[in-house]
Specification:
The chain is an alpha/beta fold and 302 residues long. The protein has one domain: Rossmann fold (3-Layer(aba) Sandwich), CATH 3.40.50. Helix content is 40%, strand content 15%. The chain has an 8-stranded mixed sheet, sandwiched between helices. It is globular and about 45 Å long.
Length: 302
C-alpha cells in the first residue's frame, strides 16, 4: 500500500494481526523487499505485527531526483571538520517519515528495528519521539561519531567501482561483487541468489546512484547524533556482526556504550549481510538475540 506521510508518498507493507507492532527500517539504498522473508516470518510467527516501508529515495516511495547527486567527498570533508553541510534531507527527516508510517496506520507505539542506515534512523526516531518507541534495536549501525566508520580497504575498492551505466547486466555484476565483499566468510551467499535479488529489485525499482548518494549525504551530515544518544531511555539492543567489513564492530560497541543500559550482542560469523540475501544461520542467530529482547520489553512504554 501507499501512504502519505511527512509530505511524501511512502510504500508500506503491513503483516496485520493484533500483535505488538515492529517497525523495520531498511538501510542504504535498500527496499522493503530486502528484509529476508524468514526474518520477517520469524517475527510474525512470534506473534508480532511487522511493518516494512521503503525509505524516501528508495523503492516505490518518493524520490528526490530534482536534487541531483550530492558531492559526497565535499560533504564528507565538511562533516569531518565538524561543520553542517547542506544536504537534500537529513536522517531526522527520514525518522519523521518512519513516525508518519505509524501515524498513518494509527499505531501509538512500536518496537523500532533498524538495519545499517536504518539503525541510525531508528536512533533518530527514538530521540525525536521516545513515547512512540517500545524498544530500540540497532543492527549493524553506528553512532555517527567521527573516525569510527572505517570500512576495509578491499570493500572500499569494490564500492568505488560502481558503474555509471544503466545497463542491467553491468549493474547486476557490480552489486553481486559488492554484496559478496560484505558477506560472511563462513556463510558466503550463493551467486544465483544474489543475481535473483537484483533481478527482483530492478523489476520493482532500479537502484539509483543519485538516490543512494542523497541517503549517504544524510548519514554523513548527521554528526551530532553521537552526543545525543545518552538521552535515550528506551530499552535498547545493539546487534552487530563480528566479521562486518563495512561498518566495523567498533561502531556497534560505541553505540551500545553511548546509550544508557543498552545490551550489545556480537553475532559470530555475521558480516554486513542480514539483507538482502541472508544465510538462514545468520537469520537464526539474529532472531535468537532479537526475539528474547522484544519479549522482555512488552510494557516498556507503559
Amino acid at each position: 500500500m501507499n501512504i502519505e506521510a511527512n509530505g511524501i508518498r511512502l510504500a508500506v507493507e503491513d503483516s496485520g494481526g493484533a500483535g505488538e507492532p515492529v517497525l523495520l527500517i531498511m538501510g542504504l539504498g535498500g527496499q522493503l523487499i530486502h528484509w529476508p522473508a524468514d526474518f520477517v516470518q520469524g517475527l510474525v510467527d512470534a506473534g508480532y505485527r511487522v511493518l516494512r516501508f521503503d525509505n524516501r529515495d528508495a523503492g516505490l516511495s518518493t524520490h528526490f531526483s530534482a536534487h541531483g547527486a550530492p558531492r559526497i567527498p565535499w560533504i564528507a570533508t565538511q562533516a569531518w571538520l565538524g561543520r553542517r553541510p547542506r544536504v537534500p534531507y537529513t536522517l531526522s527527516d527520514m525518522a519523521r517519515d518512519a513516525l508518519g508510517v505509524l501515524d498513518a496506520l494509527g499505531i501509538a507505539r512500536a518496537h523500532v528495528v533498524g538495519l545499517s542506515m536504518g539503525a541510525m534512523i531508528a536512533q533518530r526516531v527514538t530521540l525525536l519521539a521516545p513515547e512512540r518507541v517500545r524498544s530500540l534495536t540497532s543492527i549493524m549501525g553506528s553512532s555517527g561519531a567521527r573516525g569510527l566508520m572505517r570500512p576495509r580497504q578491499s570493500v572500499l575498492r569494490v564500492a568505488a567501482g560502481k558503474p555509471s551505466t544503466a545497463d542491467d547486466a553491468v549493474l547486476a555484476r557490480y552489486y553481486v561483487r559488492f554484496l559478496k565483499a560484505v558477506a560472511s566468510p563462513a556463510f558466503p551467499p550463493d551467486d544465483a541468489a544474489l543475481s535473483d535479488v537484483f533481478r527482483r529489485t530492478a523489476l520493482r525499482q532500479k537502484p539509483s546512484t543519485g538516490a543512494t548518494y542523497r541517503q549517504l549525504a544524510a548519514i554523513l551530515a548527521d554528526g551530532e547524533r553521537a552526543a545525543l544518544l545518552a538521552r535515550i531511555q528506551r530499552p535498547t539492543l545493539v546487534v552487530h556482526g563480528a566479521d562486518d567489513p563495512w561498518v566495523p564492530p567498533a561502531c556497534g560497541r560505541d553505540t551500545a556504550r553511548r546509550i544508557p543500559g543498552a545490551r550489545f550482542a556480537l553475532i559470530p560469523d555475521m558480516a554486513h549481510d542480514l539483507a538482502p540475501v541472508a544465510h538462514p544461520e545468520i537469520v537464526r542467530r539474529t532472531l535468537g538475540e532479537l526475539l528474547p529482547f522484544l519479549q522482555s520489553t512488552p510494557d516498556a512504554a507503559a
